[in-house]
Amino acid sequence: MKKIALAVALIGTMSAASAQVYVAGNLGQARIDVDCSDTVSCDKSDTGYKLTAGYQLNPLVALEASYIDFGKVKARVIESGINVDVKGESSGFLLAAALRHNITPEVSLVGRVGLAMLKSKVTASAFGFSDSESYNSTKPYLGLGAEYALNKQLRLTVGADFTDAKVEGETVSVRLLSAGVQYAF
Predict the structure, then answer these.
(1) Which sequence ranges form a coiled-coil region, renumbered to this chain (predicted)?
(2) By the 8 A CB rule, do 178 and 27 touch?
(3) Residue 171 pairs with which residues in a beta bridge?
(4) Which pLDDT band, with edges at 50, 70 and 90, does 4 fall under?
(5) Cα-based distances in Å from 142 to 32, 34, 94, 98, 114
(6) Averaged pLDDT for residues 26-45
(7) Where are the chain's structural domains?
(8) How far apart are CA 133 and CA 3, in angstroms?
(9) pLDDT for 140-184, tens place per residue?
(10) Strand 41-43 and strand 45-56: pairing?
């Protein structure tokens, strides 16, 4: 019984010693995979970003909360002979567990799994008039990344974030390929 208590105390001490708060910012190429088959023009890619606050529970596991913006998709359709400009956007919050695997003392691979709570908005406009609709969705979220430690506090990061969003009753894939920095306090 004493050995079990000692093991639990050691694990608790190791977790407390490695607990650390960090923040990160990433910027990159976002894509909202809408169906562009009935459009005159369509651009599914835009600049996107992600802002993250994390809590490193131990060297391998962290909990993260992020705000992510997947940018905008722009399209033009012809409806009853009228050009209609359509813009769609998707952004929201991610809650995830981040699992790290150290390749070297400086290089880590990161896998993230969690939930994405997104709000998507579609706006159609023609002749100076516009109409918009918003859609909320909660979907599974996956992320992959790599980190390079410049020092104990500062890391360079690259990542790929994947989830789905609800747009006009359909589910579309959204993703962000990005690079950024992470700072640990």
Answers:
(1) none
(2) yes
(3) 166
(4) low
(5) 16, 19, 10, 10, 7
(6) 91
(7) 20-184
(8) 61
(9) 999 999 999 999 999 999 999 999 998 888 899 999 999 999 999
(10) unpaired
Retrieve residue 132's tokens. Answer: 């918009």
The number of beta carbons lying within 10 Å of the beta carbon of residue 165 is 26
What is the helix (H) or strand (E) element at residue 13, kind and residue range? helix 2-18
* Single-letter code of the amino acid located at 101: H
pLDDT of 7 over the 70 cut: no
Question: From residue 40, how far is each of 21, 32, 35, 54, 76 by CA, in Å?
Answer: 48, 17, 12, 43, 5
Q: How distant is the alpha carbon of residue 144 from its chain centre?
A: 10
Burial class (CB in 10 A: 0-12, 13-18, 19+), 8: exposed
Q: Which residues of 112-149 are buried (b: 16+ CB within 10 A; e: fewer)?
A: bebebebebebebeeeeeeeeeebebebebebebebeb
